[in-house]
Amino acid sequence: FVVFGSTFYIMSSNHPSVLGTFIALAGLLPQVASQCIADETINTQFAEIFSNGTSQTYEVAEGSCCQETICAIPCPEEVSAPEKVFGIVVVSFIALTVLVGFATVLCVKGKSENYFVAGRTLPLGVVVATLASQSLDSNAILGNVDLSYKYHFFDGACLPIGLGISLLLNGAFLARHINSDGALTLPDVYARRYGKVVEVMVSICTIISFLCLLGGNLVGLGAILNYLLDFGAEEAIWLSAALVLLYTIAGGLFSVAYTDVMQAGVGWLGALSFAFWMIKNSELEAPPPSIGYPGYSYPNDEICEMYDGVSCKNLEGACCYNEAKWCPTADNCTVDNGAYPIGDLRIIPEAMTDPAGLTPFPNAILFNWATIFVLGFGNLAALDFQARCMASKDGKTATLGCFIAGCLTFVIGIPFAYLGAITRVFYGPDSARAAFEADTCSEILALPTCGLWLPDPEAFIKLLTHEAPTFLGAWCLVAIVAASMSTCDGAILAMGTVFSHNIMRNFGSCISNDNLLTIARFASIPLTAVSATIAAYYKSSHSLGATGYLLIVAFDVVLASVVVPLFGCFYTKKPSPLAALLSILAGIITRIVLEFTLPKDGFLLAPFDGDEFLNYGSAASSAVPPFWDFPEADRWDSSAEQCVQERYADLSGADSLGAPLACLIVFVLVQFLERNGPLIEFAEDGLMAPYMKEGQGLENDENGADKDVERV
Known about the structure:
The protein has 25 helices and 8 strands.
């Protein structure tokens, strides 16, 4: 049982008198009614153990918890509230950003081109700052650490890796073409080659994508404000949305660009400073092999020697915790939860090449590779990325800006994945703050109860405010807020612009260049509200709603539908409107069909062989784990009392790869069939006829667009 804060499990009913002695020593006699185990038989066994066979019910002591009562793991140690200085610094930075954003309204001068693409005047430094700021959002920083903390290094690192690759690809293949096309929005590029129907379809897909992208960043902003200022999570999300919306609709891309420069200057340096300080100065780079607790046996001789283990009394030939050295008195014990028998590592390279690379824990290898692919290619259809390329002063600036920003994404984003292991040192399963689900078992972990660790959704923010120097912690918080705001404002601007310019303009004649700016500003309001609603649902405590998840969903949408036709705009001799239309439909339909036909249990883990790919089961026994130095009769026999576990069955990632493949096949097939002429003759002034918006340039004739397309 729990003795002096160590991790002991309940002894079986074979030795109730001994167990009663442990309970008395620990002072944990039950007081408050509760039932920790759903299985009535096992629950009754625990009750009989607690009462020395006199009762079939038990209670949890007031102030205690199920993991302490059932598994003898001390309740998670509470973390004190953060110092007020953190909240003051973050709020001050947000206020400064809003003021700078409002000041740029003078640059717009009522002109839509100034509002949408900053007059196409952005120099290289500003382009790099805006592109990298869009890439290094709260998903690539906060979401990155969240995932690497909860799972492992590559689960978080795949976010900045994918985003950085997308910028390099954009610079290599698209940036110069996008810039020279003279468009106000990305859907304008499609309209010039494929007509109004495709333009509207692309607009809808990209807006849906950016609703999710904005939502993911609002989750990050809301999580920080909620923790620092003690707001409700939903209130913090809505406040964040309102503040960013106000300055974005005031100054348009000028406000976005110049607040991005400020945010980049403060944020990047703060993020790098914190990351490298923690990596260099943390006493432990990852959780070491567990020292254990009285009765704990070590997995091998090396770890036994590390902790001066002694011979076990009941486990023949095994080496056990040296109680005389590490726990000489009740108030002088060095113990942990025994969660890492052979220790953890900061990075495990095999995690990206071997499904069993993280054994005894499951490895989301399929989903991680799919994530890199989705972000690497899906982000090419990002409205905000391409808006910066359009706003660059020339194609060379756009291209070079993408290359530099991609490298910065790697340099700044990837080190944050290393912080996941450091966060586990302070808030992982071997820490005093660890929480476990009592009613769970795992055969591969040899745990009949308390098999499932429950990660703290605020762990990294707590690391910033409690485990690092105050100055560095506050600076990094500002960096995350800056990253979130830079992407939020870009997403709001992009959605409002596309909705007014590419959707509303195609449904009636009420919108002209004279009122386009006003319509775009008003359109941003409901779109931001929808994103805030998504964020409020998928807040950071949601099982799937950590910041990084919504980022992947966002670019999954456009990868399935519009990325292939985008390449077709510039890399086919005569882009086919029919090929674009059918390929988009094929990608969307394939993605929807796979979403509902592929097995998905919500855990994002493919059904590979091996016990590590079995989900946790319900509590299997009231006996102690088999690696404890107790008589054999008291140890869990998994063959007699089975831990019933179902295999993970989630092929998420396969659908993300299959949909763009279907899109590509259809596009190439139709383009090939139309090599000698169109399969369907569309009206020259119809909905499928290529056309250009007023003001869209004709400079880039080599892109495959006709010089004589209709201009409206």
